[in-house]
Amino acid sequence: MNAEIITIGDEILIGQIVDTNSQWIATELNKIGVSIYQISSIQDDREHILNALKEAENRADIVLITGGLGPTKDDITKKTIAEYFNDSEIVEYPNVIQHIKELFQKNNIPFTKVQEYQAQLPSKATLLVNDFGTAPGMWFYESDTVFVSMPGVPYEMKGLMIHEVIPRIQKQFKLPYIIHKTIMTYGMGESMISDKIANWESSLPNFIKLAYLPSYGRVRLRLSARGINRELLENTLEKELKIVRNLLSDIITGEDNGLLIEEYVGNLLRKQQKTIATAESITGGKIAATIVSISGASEYFKGSLVAYTSEIKQSLIGVSKETIEQFSVVSKEVTEEMAQKTCEKLQTDYAIAVTGNAGPTTDETDKSVGIVYIAIANQEEVICREYDFGQPREKVINRTVTKSLQMLQELLIKNT
Asked: For 340-350, how does the pLDDT look when each residue is reduced to its tens digit (9 = 90+)?
């Protein structure tokens, strides 16, 4: 069962916004056994939309469209989709108008006649109720292909997918099972791992595929099984995982079932009933922001001390002036002290501290651009490592955030 995702909007093509909708939709469809064949972003242009729909119909069983459903003249998706299905009859839904009026009244927004356009749908469309916005979704079934049109606003699209689209897809089609298992490795490159497990990989059953997912300092190995017998898939996957765990026992640090590292670390902290805080210089609070992006982070995250200058490191965190003068602000000693003092000050089980040079200048230190120190402290010990993340500035900061969470993850797994 193949699906294609089409995102409509010039704002995506000019880089004004990032298409996060496709990533989320692909993840959710994969959970129910639907594979994504292609993802496309196109202009809000009649000919472009018509061509994209025709091409997608030839490739996929399900075509999901997001964007272009606003009430203004530049949003032409609804009219163009109606043209694609040779549907000139428009049906107005009074319940949608009432829903929009109530939504506007709740938010003290005046209702205008232009909003009534949102309640007008092609006659061949099945209305999908949008509880979170003004534009309803549309469901079409033509020539054995399902077409679904949804708003581009992420929370509106997600509401429609969860409550309307996914249940309808599951009812419409007999779907296979797709099961993913991912193991995390550290300290060995992709090519070396491939060589080490070559014989095992070549003997995998044809319904199991292996993918290498490399990133800085780690490689994730994802095993994907597809079929109609869930018990067979799960048992075979576990058997193969047992083999590869033995082959790579010295570099495997855990299993990652598709979770973001901030989710994985959060789950470990919650399970161990531990708390965390951050002391940030180079990242300016980005580690804390990443941690709290996960729902329920208040169970384990206590706070962050952002100290961008040496004066604030002393006054806010409590780093000694002597340590800074002797070793400089970008140093192992200062970073360790930041982590230890933060643990004490915020009374947490763990603390992450980071200092470094993101560039383009090096300020009050002799360390080159790209040098970063990351320390993880608990009540018994502090671990500090030096990294050279190179350039440019954005890469240095983002790698510091990721590596900080990876180091915390390693320590949490070790202390399990």
From this structure: 999 999 999 99
